[in-house]
Structure formats: structure tokens, C-alpha cells
Amino acid sequence: MVHQECINCKTTYSINEVVYFCKKCGDILEVKYEADELAEAAQTSDWKTKPLSVWRYRPFMPIHESTKLVTLGEGGTGLHHSERLCNELGIKNLYVKNEGENPTGSFKDRGMTVGVTKAVELGARHVICASTGNTSAALAAYAARAGIRCTVLIPSGKIAYGKLSQAMIHGAKVLQVKGNFDEALEFVLKLAETHRDIYLLNSINPFRIEGQKSLGYEICEQLNYEAPDRIIIPVGNAGNISAVWKGLKEFYELGLIKKLPKMTGIQAAGSAPIAQAIKANADKIVPVEHPETIATAIRIGAPVSWKKAVNAIRESGGTAETVTDDEILDAQKTLARVEGIFVEPASASSIAGLKKLIRRGVVVGDEKVVCITTGHGLKDPDTAIKQSEKPIEVDAEISAIEAALGLKKPNVVLAR
Ligand code: F0G
């Protein structure tokens, strides 16, 4: 039977138990299926006839058959072959998996549709999360869809405006904590432990990871059941890279793909405990006490799923890299101008990381690379405006517009 299992001591818990950490050793949990459970689901259900989306994979999700789904139509995002960016970077085979195309504009929707569906299945009436922005936007939307109460804790002054507006308009109770994300997370963990009627939907919740694993499935399907050589992904709290890896391994074990990609995590230089641990070949991360980066989404110093992420990177033969704020902003602009894909700064770190890995000779010419861009650029309009050319104000006259564009006066007047 499908169950929850501690990633360390392997203690098991029922799929219907509300538990966030192992009661024996305190480590985090994951959803596990028995050997043939997924294989049977893959063979007996008609999932392949369903449109590309998170719920195409319903037989691979730990949700009861009779449960009503809380959905806004998530997943099925574009995998864009990026020829112009290939030319710019000097590689041959790059795809951008653009998660900004999800209903609330980030990959978090994949986890939230499953997480909030599970919350309702468990009878929860009040959900909570700590967030750098996107998780709160997604949770607020899905809680609204389900008609349940939602509370979000965000670091005061350090969340992009688009995301804040989403949490607010969907009716969540928004608490701005005078501290960083890691501190906010500590508070929601305490609240969920002591107030058992509040259900926690941060990415330590294994049901969220189940939704997000569909990102790994989808990439393989969009490449005709072939995994790429490498997947490059921005890393913050480290849930997503763990989820994508879980999905890929499940597809591999089902025989749906023949090889696995190298998982490559990118962190902002000022918030990079996982990348540092990978580079130092260390067993543990050293949390960053005062994380800083313009990419506020990944401004996280003590990633809760670090063990899963380090394992995904090592097991897959991948790597991790850090990128500076300047490199992130440069990559954001390049992607917007060369491919027409507008992503928020944290998302652009995958492109910035790719650039660096090419320069270092880690990524070579004909590798098939998928860069995941995690959130839409409209999430953070301030940063986009700050680094772009200012609009030019002109008089409402054709001559002023021509002058501003540097156009010569036409010498022929066309008849109307
Ligand atoms: N990219 C974006 C745009 C994000 O919002 C996040 C995380 C990540 C990457 C990193 O993903 O945490 O799974 O490693 N945002 C969380 C939030 C922390 O609260 O919205 P991760």
C-alpha cells in the first residue's frame, strides 16, 4: 500500500496520517509506493489518453479515487526548443521548460493542486505556509478554489509585488514576519505542531512533492519518452529538484525512459548552502544565516529538503553551481530578448547557471539540456523595470514620435 516513509530511518506512516517529520528520528518524509503499485497503475489506467497536465498522472498520485480534485488546470507547460539562445550560448540542444505558464504563474501550482486536494481529503479547513512569495500565491489561490481558510507568513519587505498581490486578492491572511524565510518557516512548523487543525503546505509536505514530480514526467513525455542529458533547475528550499528527480526515477523504474538525466541545481551566490556542500563534497550543508540575493524567491539559507536535493544531484551524477545577482539579471534579459520568454529573477538562475557551466566546460556542445524556468516575469515587475531602458515620453504629434525613433521624414506623401 502507498504510504509515507522517513527518508532516513524508513519508519512508515499511513497516507492518512497528518505528520510532517519522522516521530523517531525527526527527518523528513516521502510518499512511497509498493514495488508493483505504480506499474499496475501505469498499465491498467488510460492515463496516456489524457491531456498533458498534472492530473493526467492521477493514477500515480496518492489521492483517493473518489476525492474531488481542487484544480485550476495546472501543468502541460511549454517545453520550448530555444534555437536563438543555443546560438547565443554556443550549444546545440537547449530547451526551456517554462513553468511560468501555470495558473498562478509558477511551478508551485503542481504541488498545490495535489496538496490542497489532499488537505480537503483529510478534512482540513485551514491551510498555512511560509513563503518567499510563489508558494503563498499558489496556496491562496487553491485554498480559495477549495473554499477553506488560508494563512501565509512572508518575510517582510522581501517578496516581489506580483506575488503579494496574488495572496492578498485571493483572500489569504497575510502576515509579514520581521525576519527571513527560514524564520517564518520555523513559525509555521511550530503552529502546525501545536494547532493540529491547521494543515501545513510547505514543501516538506510530501503530497506537494507528489504533484511537483509531474514536472519530471512531463519533460520526458515532451521529448517522446526520452530523458534529456541534463536538467538545470533553480534551488531554494530544495523541494522542486527532489520532486523532479522522484518523478524521473519513477518513470525510469516503470521502463518508460531508458536513462536518467544529470540533475544540476543552481543557487544564488548569497544563499547557496547546497551548492557549497556539493562543491566541498561535504556530508551536510552549513546553513547561511543571512541569505541575500535579488532573486528573492530563492533567498533561503536553511533549505529544509537539502538531503533529498544533495542525494538527487549525487545519485544522478549531476552538479551544483552558484550565480551572482548580476549574472541572474543578465540571463533574465537575454532570455526575454532572445527567446521572448519573460521569467522572474530566480527562474533565470537556471539560464545563468547554464552559461557558467558552458564556460567551465562542464556542459558540452551536443548535450541535450533542459533549463527549468520556475516563475513568470510578471511576478516581479519592479526588477524588470529597473533594469530596462526607460520609456520615452513624447508629445502627441507624429513628428515627435518620428524624432524619438530616429526616423527620417519621408519625402513622398502617400495618398490616402
Ligand atoms: N524558483 C522560484 C520562482 C521559486 O519561487 C522557488 C521557491 C524556487 C525557484 C525554488 O524552489 O524551494 O523547491 O527549491 N519558492 C518558495 C516559495 C520557497 O515560498 O515560493 P525550491
Can you describe what's shown?
- With 416 residues, the chain is α/β, with parallel strands linked by helices.
- The protein has 15 helices and 13 strands.
- The strands form three sheets. A six-stranded mixed beta sheet has the order 4-5-13-10-11-12, sandwiched between helices.
- Helix 3 runs parallel beside helix 4, helix 3 crosses helix 7 and helix 8 packs across helix 9.
- It is globular.
- Bound molecules: ligand F0G.
What low-confidence regions span 5 or more consecutive residues with pLDDT below 50?
none
Cofactors, ions and other ligands in the entry: ligand F0G
Q: Sheet bearing the most strands, described?
A: 6 strands, mixed
Strand/helix succession: EEEHEHEHEHEHEHEHHEHEHHEHHEHH
Number of strands: 13
Q: Separation of termini?
A: 76 Å
SSE diagram, text form:
Elements: E1 3-6, E2 12-13, E3 29-32, H1 37-44, E4 79-81, H2 83-89, E5 93-98, H3 108-121, E6 126-130, H4 134-146, E7 149-155, H5 161-169, E8 173-177, H6 181-194, E9 198-200, H7 206-212, H8 214-222, E10 230-234, H9 239-253, E11 262-268, H10 273-279, H11 306-315, E12 319-323, H12 325-339, H13 345-359, E13 368-373, H14 381-386, H15 398-405
Parallel strand pairs: 5-13, 6-7, 6-9, 7-8, 10-11, 10-13, 11-12
Antiparallel strand pairs: 1-2, 1-3, 4-5
Helix pairs in contact: 2-12, 3-4, 3-7, 4-5, 7-9, 8-9, 9-11, 12-13
The structure holds ligand F0G.
Ligand F0G is lined by residues 106, 108, 131-135, 203, 234-240, 297-298, 344, 346-347, 374-375.
